[in-house]
Predict the 3D structure of the following.
Amino acid sequence: MVLPLMICYRPIGIIHSPFKEPKDVPIQASAAKDIEGTVEVFPEFSEGLKDIEEFSHIILIYHFHRAKFKGLLVEPYMHEEKHGVFATRAPARPNPIGISVVRLVERKGNILRIRDVDILDGTPLLDIKPYVPEFDVRENVRIGWLEKNVHKLEKARDDGRFFSLNFNYIFPASLLEAPERAKL
């Protein structure tokens, strides 16, 4: 079987948050209690939001558009030893895809108001899925090297180690310069 060299995804929207730079972004949504943001779904995808407001939480799948891949061994947040990138949640990955479970506060048309946001402003949104505990929660899990470090999560913030200062957005900058469009 021959695999394609490239797989292309088209953003379905933009995530807006108070975090304009990677530094100081909470490193997980569970450490971003009550931080508000919005999801602006592009109009051509807004029909797909039908009934989303019936869910209290949603899963956002997005592209780490400013992450800079540095290799398969990384020194993750909350630990000073290198680990394989696939044993971490570091944003700099071969395929820089992020996921966050956030609270859905309100939907107005193609705009979703959310809380517990740990995402950089202007992040391209790839997909949205409803969070369903019966599907998504697992029991008797092992968390590897994080077992000794998970207590650091609440205060852990991005220090910029995985991000590049030079980047190109994959859609028009004018969309990113109009955050007032995303306000409810």
Summary: The chain has one domain: 13-161. The CA atoms of residues 108 and 184 lie 7 Å apart. Residues 165-184 have pLDDT under 50 and may be disordered. Strands lie at 13-16, 36-41, 57-63, 73-74, 83-84, 97-108, 111-115, 123-130.
